[in-house]
Amino acid sequence: MSHTVSVAPLHGRGVEVELGAAGGVHAQSRAEMEPPKPLVDDDGRPLRTGTLWTASAHIITAVIGSGVLSLAWGVAQLGWAAGPVVMVLFAAVICYTSTLLAECYRSGDPVLGPRNRTYIDAVRATLGDSKERLCGAIQLSNLFGIGIGVSIAASVSMQATRRAGCFHYRGHEEPCHASTSPYIAIFGIMQVIFSQIPDLDKVWWLSIVAAIMSFSYSGIGVSLGVAEIAANRGVRGTVAGVISAGTGVTLMQKVWRSLQAFGNIAFAYGFSIILLEIQACHQQRQLIFLSHDTIKSPPPSEAKVMKKATAVSVAVTTVIYLLCGCVGYAAFGSAAPDNMLTGFGFYEPFWLLDVANAFVVVHLVGTYQVMTQPVFAYVERRAAAAWPGSALVHERKVRVGRAMAFSVSPLRLAWRTAYVFVTTAVAMLLPFFGAVVGFIGAVSFWPLTVYFPVEMYIAQHRVARGSTRWLLLHALSAGCLVVSIAAAAGSIAGVVEELKAHNPFCWSC
């Protein structure tokens, strides 16, 4: 028989003394008996453990995507003198505005202020509801456009796989024509199925696969470019770009294409929209590609770490982009295609081209979901709030056989299918990879990468109106607005030029 006697706390720790039958005394701390409390951050969420290097890795893997394939064409339009310089300038602007955005992760106090976990949260907290609605509309439009661009890019890669085999077996002189429309439709059917996944945390594995694929096909493209340079026994290209190469390009075409190249480069660098999510989220699998943590709480402050991470990631990304763009231009000169893996500057080894394009398709399946699931979630949240308890939004368990079951709602099934159908139809109407990518990059560059970060920084830090810093920040914003408008105009001109020879929805031409 034993008895337990409670003893007054000693230095804040309660002690229980157990008197055993044999007179033994056993002391045990209550703190040791209780389960350890979970470590949490100041917002009650599990403790973040991310560092400079994990944050840098997240940004790099999020940024490098199909936009890298159009950079050789962009450098070809600008030439050796301007192409690399423009890429570096875009990198510098994006690096700087991203550091401004990182400052807006917390409202008020930079160390203890409330966190803004998403881009739109930061806009709401700093600039108010009206700017939040404007930003939301721009974000949703941008994501819709990216869905179209991704559908086009995937179909072009699928088409290239078929053409590569044709060229290999029939010879390089064969036209080997193939329409992209059937492949856009196939990609759309795939996305209808994947889009029924309820939310992004269910597709975290797609993001990991997508990251591996993007590095793989970028590496293959650079390797094939280096091999082509060796085969040519020299570097191709000119200082001024295609207009000086005797290709029959007029001065006006040179201007439009150069402006479109700005849009292509802007598209390749677009990551500001997810910067705060990387800075804020803990174990958000849709954003974390290489590990399951993000930046730990201060010291040092998250903003300081993210600034360094942005600098590191932009530097690494710029090196990769310069490699892809400059190696592609050096290999093909003025004939550089708008997609390095599908323009058939390379014919052999055809199987390696097939592998690279397969990697592109797999990557873009994941990219489409990452970019469209936020649109799905936004509409479905609004619908659930507007019609609570409605049968339209009520989820039902659907069982397929004995082993598989999943949730589905009438709204999700109809709305997501319709959305994919619309992006697929628009992609069939405008299957022009380079021009569409340039337009998307142009229209999203100024508002999301420059305007909102600058305005939030000015409001957050109370930069005095008319001060030198205020004037310089607005000059930067105004200059980037001009670049965005010009790049959008160039991309529209590119679409118009492509439409002259395009038959929408043609499945055999």
User: What is the makeup of the main sheet?
Assistant: 3 strands, antiparallel
CATH architecture of the largest domain: Up-down Bundle
Counted by DSSP, the helix tally is 14
Strand/helix succession: EEEHHHHHHHHHHHEEHHH
Shape: globular
CATH fold-level label of the largest domain: Amino acid/polyamine transporter I
Give the strand order of the largest sheet, numbering strands 1, 2, ... along the chain.
1-2-3
Strand content: 5-15%
Can you give keywords for this protein?
509 residues, 2 domains, mainly alpha, disordered N terminus, two-stranded antiparallel ribbon, Amino acid/polyamine transporter I, 14 helices, 6% strand, 3-stranded antiparallel sheet
How is the secondary structure organized here?
Blueprint: E1 3-10, E2 13-19, E3 25-29, H1 30-33, H2 52-63, H3 71-102, H4 119-127, H5 129-170, H6 181-194, H7 204-232, H8 251-269, H9 275-280, H10 302-332, H11 350-386, E4 396-400, E5 404-408, H12 410-429, H13 433-460, H14 468-499
Antiparallel strand pairs: 1-2, 2-3, 4-5
Helix pairs in contact: 2-10, 3-8, 3-10, 3-13, 4-5, 4-13, 5-6, 5-11, 5-12, 5-13, 6-12, 7-10, 7-11, 8-13, 8-14, 13-14
Main location: membrane
Pfam families: Aa_trans
InterPro entries: AA_transpt_TM
